[in-house]
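Many introductory courses stop at the sequence. We go one step further.
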Amino acid sequence: MKTWSDTRRPAAGADPRGARSAGAPPVRTPADARQLVRHTLAALGPLRPAQVEDLLLVTSELVTNAHRHAGGVTGFGIGVGHDRVTVSVSDASGQTPLYERPADLRPGGYGWPIVLRLCREVTVDAGPDGKTIHAAVAVERCAVPEPAGM
């Protein structure tokens, strides 16, 4: 099930920049973000390749959009749940993303629809100092095959 919330205010006491692992280097580029996501996913055990690719694409799109439309990434986080992995990307713009269908074949404008299509849930926490987009991709851990001869 996909849900979408246009904008919601951060909860009292919440960090609007998103969580980041202590000691982790800051995420500045889509490549930095993908590397951090790959590292996190490796610790989860085997996942379906399509789910990994979806998560990496969503990560790249969110970080790229933060650079193109909001001055860059101000925070990055990854949350792992039983059946989902959530990527959170913060930037300094309080403007929420717009879903616009391109009327012609102009470049750009496809990233946000891709994020909405691939995610189970997308929410935007917006405030005067910026926003955080939380994008959850469904994951299902693969069964690990037993070694031959057992």
